[in-house]
Amino acid sequence: MNRLMRIVDRSLISKSKHILPIVGFLLILAYFVSEFKVSNDVSNSEVAMDEREEKIGREEALRIANEDAARMYRDLSIYHIQAELRNDKWYVDYEISNPQMVGGGPHYVISARTGEVLSFRYEQ
Description:
By secondary structure, this protein is α+β, with helices and mostly antiparallel strands. The chain has 2 domains: 1-54; 58-121, Nuclear Transport Factor 2, Chain: A (Roll). Helix content is 55%, strand content 21%. It is built from 2 helices and 4 strands. Strands 1-2-3-4 form a 4-stranded antiparallel sheet, with helices on one face.
């Protein structure tokens, strides 16, 4: 029985000699992978911050909307124009100033990051 115990102990010791370097290697590998992920997340957040800083302003959103609205409606003097920034989008609405007039104006949703017209609706 003692001999069997010594054999089992020796086999465990010899196996642990091979397992310890592998475990150590895996721990080091896990460390570098986690460091890469953290540094990658930081660079992605820096890109996100850069994109947020490149937003178009209210005046640019109005210019984009006015170009299309003037083409479709010609005379924009009868409209009260509102521009509101929500969730990285400019909502530009043309409402008729005179309450006695019937109809409506155009409505635009413009990306605050790119200036692209995401959607529009025309009322007559």
